[in-house]
Amino acid sequence: MIENLVFLTPLSVANKLRIGPQSDGGYVVYKPSLYHCDVLISYGIGWDMNFEIDYYNLTNKKVLMFDPTMFMDTYINKFHCKSLLRKLQFYRLYAYLKLSYVWKKRIEYLKKYDMLFFNEGLSNKKEGKYDSFQNHLAKHKITTEKIILKIDIEENEYSVLNETGFYNHLDSVDQIIIEFHNLKNRLRELKSIIYRLKELFEIVHIHGNNNSDQFTLYTEKGDDICFPDVIEVTLVKKTSILPGDILSEKIDYPCPGLDFPNTASRNDFIKLRFQ
To answer: How many whole angstroms separate alpha carbon 89 and alpha carbon 222?
Structure first.
């Protein structure tokens, strides 16, 4: 079966904004939705809170940040420290302790501004440091608030988005920013997920992450398509897109002024093709 990428074609809309750095960790959002939402729930921080901090500075709204990979049960991993000591790697030990201290102080400081970090991850059920989206909403008493949801969890997005229970709790989600990985092996899976999300949402932006390579889709016509193995996708609730923001002309991706290479030392991918 020949695959195509039409299902990823974004709806052309105006009024978009980049939040975060002009590099990896920055994402494009739909501006009107940004301001009428009440909370950002962000899965996958990875030592970079610039997107979350920019969101707070723009909106002064609550931020809940989740990542189970940065720390063990405490800020200091004693086993890692002992291992470095045994190997006499004193500089690495010093650097690790300094980083842990800096992040501990940063997380404590951000609490004052209703920016809360949790040493937890996203899954389909409660298991160890992981829990479901539904349980996180209940635990943090997110009931009537409008939500912006960011998910960057290094290919674990498929297990979450393949679970029916996740979709039962999207009524309050107004905008989703999500990174999809390993498309060369999971494109059919992605297609199923996108069609399911499109029951409520429209894709309004897409960007190829140049930290990854490209792969080739071979077509019957011979006009083969090169496409990024990792993409960043922004989806907005259909009912939240202002009619006046819908454009008749098609937008090229990447978009000048909004999209930048995730890795500055590598060129961004050329114009993305969806068919």
So the answer is: 55
Residue with tokens 């290094």: 154
Read off the pTM. 0.93
Q: CA-to-CA distance for 148 and 42, rounded, in angstroms?
A: 8
CA distances from 231 to 142, 182, 254 (A): 29, 9, 11
Phi first, then psi, for residue 106 (nearest 5°) are -65, -45
8 A C-beta contact, residue 210 and residue 174: no
Domain ranges of the chain: 6-70+119-245
pLDDT digits (tens, 9 = 90+) for 210-256: 999 999 988 777 778 899 999 999 999 999 999 999 999 999 999 99
Tokens at 124, concatenated = 């389909």
Fold annotation for 6-70+119-245: Rossmann fold (3.40.50)
Ramachandran area for residue 182 (φ above 0: left; ψ -120 to 50: alpha; else beta): left
